[in-house]
Amino acid sequence: MVHRSRCISICVFTCSLLLLAAGANAQDWFRTGTGLGVEKPRVAVADFAARADNAKSHSQLFTQVVRDDLQFSGILDLVSPSFYPVQVPSVPTELHNADWTTPQVNANLVAFGNLTESSEVVISA
After folding, report:
1. Confidence tier at 12 by pLDDT (50, 70, 90)
2. Residue 35 has pLDDT above 90, yes or no
3. Is 125 helix (H, G, I), strand (E, B) or coil?
4. Is the dihedral angle over the CA atoms 70, 75, 41, 109 positive or is it negative?
5. How far apart (Å, rounded) are the C-alpha atoms in residues 44 and 47?
6. By CB neighbour count within 10 A (0-12 exposed, 13-18 middle, 19+ buried), where does 53 fall?
7. Of 1, 4, 24, 121, which one is least surrounded by beta carbons within 10 A?
């Protein structure tokens, strides 16, 4: 009788270990990080307007550096310039929100500004 109860105890113990092991294998891996499961904000970076012809190369360079830095950050989704509206703003009064929220662009944020150059470079954003 003692032998039989010991056998039953061992069987119950073994079955419970097997059930626990099966449950542990069924669990998914966990992931850590920032913004998991959250959609990245979509950002559009309009070409910074040159206020004079001599500032055109610097305004193009500045625009490209801003785009590259935002893309490299990995925390934003940069909208391709090919989807931008024809008229891009350089000052706040030129910004038309409806142009930037179309399904093609769907930008949450728009970066824009202008650049002047004399003895120093001045960027207004």
Report:
1. low
2. no
3. coil
4. negative
5. 10
6. exposed
7. 1
Residue type (1 letter), 48: F
- Tell me the one-letter amino acid at 89: P
Kindly compute the dihedral angle of the four CA atoms of residues 41, 42, 43, 47, in this order, to the nearest 10 degrees.
180
Mean pLDDT, to the nearest integer, of 52-73? 92
Question: Would you say residue 120 has pLDDT above 70?
Answer: yes
Determine the Cα–Cα distance for residues 93 and 43; give it in Å rounded to an integer. Answer: 19
Rg (CA), the chain: 30
**Alpha carbons 83 and 107: distance in angstroms, whole number:** 10
Cβ atoms of 100 and 45 closer than 8 Å: no
